[in-house]
Amino acid sequence: MDTNHIPIFPEQASAIAGSVDGLYAFLVLTTAFFSLLIAVLIVYFAIKYRRRSDDYIPGPVHGGLALEIIWSVIPLGLSMVMFAWGASLFFTESRPPDDSLEIYVTGKQWMWKLQHMEGQREMNELHIPVNRNIKLTMTSEDVIHDFFVPAFRSKSDVLPGKYTTEWFRPTKVGTYHIFCAEYCGTRHSNMIGTVYVMEPNHYAEWLATGGAQGSLAQRGEALFQQLGCVNCHQTDGQGRCPNLIGVFGKPVRTNVGVVTADASYVRESILNPGAKIVDGYQNIMPVFQGLVTEEGLQQLIEYVRSLGPTASDVTRIQPGGSAGGGHALPPGRVDPDPKGKGVSPPQQ
Amino acid sequence: MITTAPVEVEAPKNYINAEYGLKSWLLTQDHKRIAVLYLISITFFFLIGGIFATLIRLELATPAADLVESNTYNKLFTMHGIIMIFLFLVPSIPATLGNFLIPLMIGAKDLAFPRINLLSWYIYILGGIMTLYVMVTGGVDTGWTFYTPLSSTYSNGYVIATACAIFVAGFSSILTGLNFVVTIHRMRAPGMTWFRLPLFVWAHYATSLLQILGTPVLAVTLLLLGLERGLHIGIFDPALGGDPVLFQHLFWFYSHPAVYIMILPAMGVISEVISTFCRRAPMGYTFIAFSSVAIAVFGFLVWGHHLFVSSQSVYAGMVFSVLSYLVAIPSAIKVFNWTATMYKGSVLLSTPMLYALGFIGLFTIGGLTGLFLAAMGMDVHLTDTYFVVAHFHYIMVGGAILGYLAGLHFWWPKITGRMYSEAWSRISAVIVFVGFNLTFFPQFVLGYLGMPRRYHVYPPEFQIYNVLSSAGASVLGIGLLLPFVYLAFSLKYGALAGSNPWGATGLEWQTDSPPTTENFAITPVVTAEAYDYAAGQGAKTVVVA
């Protein structure tokens, strides 16, 4: 136990941390004022008006309606400030910027599995560059977990069966705790990890050491072939299933209305294809529930994302979908290996 | 009889010596005896829950796992939560003090349904026995919140048995609430209008509404959980086509109002105690009365503030956030009114008053830290950390248990007819207050630093605050054990209390201590407002034949 350094605040290592601490300071000061006010009044009244005679009966308290209104309206006003401040901060916290570097997180009892777009896979560790917006797309293989980085003041539940997101912008190079914050069973307190926030050049070096099996999208492409998806999802529009080129992120007409073809929709369409059927197609796709792992799903989603929606991506796709669509990086994503070595996908 | 026995001074008949023998207690329909049955049983479960708390704090004194293994630790905090909430806090004040006092306070002979009152105790005991069965056969490790799909699919504990136990115990709570509502509506003495009711009764009326309307939702939720776990009907587990967050909505729809089930009766106690030991009516009677009802109504509309980071929509979150702030206002009104009641009063720092003032301080901190958690952007960092643990212990221990102790000390002379040691009881009140703050205040800091709740092992930088907390827990433990000694001692050696030892105005103080089985020799007629100290004691009732 290091008694020389007794921390009061966690480290501020993300762009939002200062704002969260600012609201915290406001709340501490406001509530401390009222707590002390009540405490001082109680002690003062207890001494000043202590019972001196058993016969003395004090009259009723006067103050009445005016006083009641004052001490209802002032707390109401202050609490509305807290509400508005907290809500506006929450909007910032819950909306990842468009230029975020995306990373997939899968929680399972009792570990964190992470996949970078460039193909690096990590367990209980997260390597990220400093001063970049980072967006985590998260799901769980079993129970509910929660990805919590106190130094970033960032936290979100990680649910089975759906994607949740969380974002932060690390501002300080260093190592920080990852905690699972939602009780998840026996070894809940061992479901911890470390975030390594690195200088961009160190991060690039780190990226170069992994990803031997290609980027996520490339792995997704391999899976797409392996699972036989390619037989029906033909790219010339002649297949029995919808052409996937240029679909990602676009609205799609289905039997339950127009939906956006985002990660959650692609995921659902693989696991439970009958849930939302694209207009003009039959419900003939087999159910892949239990046949694809969460990580496999993430790779497939990245493959579909790599197929569109930008025109340049579309032109690069050859029939059969094997022309290195995985190398296409959606806007805003850093090219992990601009010099073309290491993780650069071999053209097939 | 032919011969007369040697003349003995017969103790006056009261509800305790009216009949003798175990059977006379186990088959009683007297609300006061049932209250005593509850008092004994909830005290038993409080001790068991306290043993679990002790083991938890011992384990957390060091960062490593050195007392128990993770599985055992998880069972400890789960059983601590389940026993303390469902078998101690929820029934604590209503089933003991409420049961004993509501008929006395409104000038009735008993509750409206004496048999149902006894039935509710047996249901409680059945739920308690089922919980003990789960405990000795292996326990349950889901946390008292039973989040799915951990509880419905993955846990190896006795989830269904525990759910059954809570399901059963819930009916005891529903029946008590039902009994109180009917009693308060139908059994008031002549002249006891709604706005002459003691604030304790108002608080219990609001609590009863919560019990009746909220508890069935918990029962349904647990039933659905059992169906999924036992019969694999997909409701909550996405692998079966369910939605895990649906469980959280249903669970907190009961369990957030349940916090008010625990705290409202304590607020009722505090209003009585403050008034008596300031010798004047509480300031803002109608504001305090209606704030109880407002808390009960708004309390049903804030459950979503437990789900800010559970993928709930941002806009739903905003609605729950703003309603959570609104529910804080009635509590603030109460605190200000209690404090203002002392102004130019005649304040006596007796033991109940010390506990009541402790309540105001701790409840204020507990309530104000709730404002942190209601701020969505702040809650993201704080939720599921020790900040939350500290916050709700300030409400449930600092609030509900201190309120319970205030009430128990205040009405002990009425219940038993004896006075306890004032010196020892004041010492214990101070020890409880100090020990409580030492235990739980460091946890606020710990939570902001980021220590998640329900962690068996933790990084070493958190140890200093955990050591403080565990040290405080031992002080708190001593403070809570002292009353067992001096209250037990008072039963035999305490001075006789007389009917009104505190010089209070309520109807319960105008009958014997302990009261007779019938409560009042003749039905009282109420002719004055509550807390009419100026008119002198006893002036509020007119005795009619």
What does this structure look like?
The complex is a heterodimer of chains A (348) and B (545). Chain A is an alpha+beta fold. Among the domains of chain A are: 101-208, Sandwich (Immunoglobulin-like), CATH 2.60.40.420; 216-327, Orthogonal Bundle (Cytochrome Bc1 Complex, Chain D, domain 2), CATH 1.10.760. Helices cover 33% and strands 19% of the residues of chain A. Chain A has helices at residues 17-48, 64-94, 200-208, 216-226, 229-232, 263-271, 294-306, 311-316, and strands at residues 101-108, 111-116, 121-123, 125-129, 134-140, 145-149, 154-158, 164-168, 174-180, 192-198, 251-254, 257-260. In chain A, the strands form three sheets. Chain A has a five-stranded mixed beta sheet with strand order 3-2-1-5-8, covered by helices on one side. A five-stranded mixed beta sheet of chain A has the order 4-10-9-6-7. In chain A, strands 11-12 form a two-stranded antiparallel sheet. In chain A, strand 11 (251-254) and strand 12 form a beta hairpin. The radius of gyration of chain A is 27 Å and the shape is elongated. Chain A starts with 16 loop residues before the first helix and ends in a 32-residue tail after the last helix. Chain B has 545 residues and is mainly α. Chain B has a single domain, classed as Cytochrome C Oxidase, Chain A (Up-down Bundle). A two-stranded antiparallel sheet of chain B has the order 1-2. Chains A and B meet through helix 1, helix 2, strand 7 and strand 9 of A and helix 3, helix 5, helix 8, helix 10 and helix 11 of B.
